[in-house]
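Build the 3D complex.
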Amino acid sequence: MLEKQTRIRRSKARGGRRENRVTIKDLARDLGLSITTISRALNGYSDVSEKTRLRVVEAVRESGYQPNRSAQRLVTQRTHSLGWIKDERAGAIADPHFVEVFAGVLRACRTENYDLVFAAGHHSSQTSAYDRSIREHSVDGFIVDLPQPRDPRISFLLDADVPFVVHGRESRSSQYSWVDIDNAGIFKALAGLMFDNGHRRIALVNGDEHFAYAIERRKGVNAAIRQRGLPADCVTYLSTTHPMGLAGYQLTEQALADPSVTAILYSSSIMAMEGQAAVSRAGRVAGGDLAVATMDDGLRHVDLSPYEDLFTFARSPLRDAGERLVDALVARCERDEPPSGKEMDVTFHIAQGLDSAGLPKKWRPAKAA
Amino acid sequence: MLEKQTRIRRSKARGGRRENRVTIKDLARDLGLSITTISRALNGYSDVSEKTRLRVVEAVRESGYQPNRSAQRLVTQRTHSLGWIKDERAGAIADPHFVEVFAGVLRACRTENYDLVFAAGHHSSQTSAYDRSIREHSVDGFIVDLPQPRDPRISFLLDADVPFVVHGRESRSSQYSWVDIDNAGIFKALAGLMFDNGHRRIALVNGDEHFAYAIERRKGVNAAIRQRGLPADCVTYLSTTHPMGLAGYQLTEQALADPSVTAILYSSSIMAMEGQAAVSRAGRVAGGDLAVATMDDGLRHVDLSPYEDLFTFARSPLRDAGERLVDALVARCERDEPPSGKEMDVTFHIAQGLDSAGLPKKWRPAKAA
DNA sequence: TTAGCCAGCCAAAACGTTTTGGTAAACAGT
DNA sequence: ACTGTTTACCAAAACGTTTTGGCTGGCTAA
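Done.
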């Protein structure tokens, strides 16, 4: 016998999960109130008597009622979730810097009671991932990280007029919310400390200069030079597109190939640590005949304690930045606040015994401009 | 003048985001068709003529219509998203093993077109995080990883009768879907190889034996002993609750404190690598007078190439496991398939020149039981 | 007493889909 | 010509909330 073949779905089959969850309707029936009143009681409206509100709250507690998010989403046009589409270049999600920000974001999402929808998108298909997500209405706003100078994702999101927050900044930073540090100012200060202690040949071991943060850092170092009227060649610029693995060692090796280099400024404490093998190998000593300063992002799974007194640190925990990101984004999604930028605090932690030029042993803390 | 104080919400303020998205209603109007027909055309029902379907598809294409997920969620009772509530013990999301699984999960989510809702929950509050998520209806199913022998999260989820998949296994593995490797079999095989090559004192550097996987691995080693009638003290058991950082070095140091140990079996390639410093320090040589075997999880950000010919590896990429997890979970959510378990393939990669006892230099590959 | 106000409640509409249960027209078989 | 089947469509209900725009009855002020 042939099956009749009408109304057969090609795709999704409807599963038969048993749903006997308690809805607002059940509560209304049980309490002899209207749905409206239940809803308004729970949402803090003032036109519900205190007595009734307590009855409702009690009923909610004992029934375990939790409003159905899907229904809320539909009617409020809010999803109560945030999207983060991470560029999945090699190692991106393994990068300890990312992990640190991620941890902060997760924590803040929990306290703000937002869901985080995380995805990894290939670079080329990224705007389409945003596009789809927006048209589907699946999140209220996005987190964008590691912007490039004029980042196409940001162009797209600005155009789509959808809330987002950037970890970092690029050219259009007045048009969106961002959380960042004063990269230029910090590196200007660190390089300045070195110059002011008599160093005349230093190396900058920078991150990937395709990204805005690294460009700013280089600019900061340049500013320190110009401010003092020093020659351009007093800095050896080094950078890497692969900040994990061997970069710290190799770039340090390159930096020390010129024996007149007396100070190295690192863009990350991981590279600074990795570089120590090359320092020893070159017969140099950090905190002895070599000054080392580095940006410290407060990576909790990297143990810097052996270097606490040998390196100078500019410290600004990325985890805090992660939390701020969520706060800023939620402010924008929920209360429609105008774009705002936040420069995270930086504390300077000055190495002892670091001077190679007979100048005062202690660097004075600097205030990032 | 006093403000009238009626109907003031305490919490959420409704934002005024401009919504001019195209809905199914717009399409229906424009095409002169009913909403039903549009919906059915798009969902692959056979009661729409091919001609009409093409018109619909074309209109969708040019209008950029994307069904509103919130509405779909409400009516279908499906969210098309998966939840992963990760225990946020120290270093959990920084662990390279996790990162690898995560990468696989993300990739599979993209191909399956599922959203991943990721959260970090403190151990104590975990079941309540699941509970809330379930009652809110915010995901279709959960990923659970690193089970303990009788894991309370699994108890809870079984009880809640909600789809989930476990990376790993514990006592009740017939009741849920899981993806795992044959931990006992693999470690039985590796230890067996060592014994069969004449080693009589070996060390097991295991992971955290609070977790099922590590317990299984120890059992596997024990089985190898029993099978050969060897004395129990031919294995030194070592394990750590902090597999990152110094554990590899320290445990190796401990293992080699007994100079009669001629082989070390590691639970992770990271520990094996970290242990090399201690090996050198003890004046021993991996692949020379010390046999080293390790589980290799295919961590892509760990460069094992220096050890390719010195260590023996049992290899099973965690990324693949991540992809399987999603496949298994989607099968369960979408098609309500019964629980199924999957043991991932393992390939053995045998070190050369590893024998310290004058026995054949090549180990023969073993089939994990 | 009466108008006005306020506190406290509610019915119904709306959000944007999917699904149910049809109908009308065309076609086929007798 | 009549009956049944098939094709191609559709109106309305449903999903579970929030919000709008009421209404009622009691209190206050004149």
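Residues 24-68 of chain A form a domain with the 434 Repressor (Amino-terminal Domain) fold (CATH 1.10.260.40).
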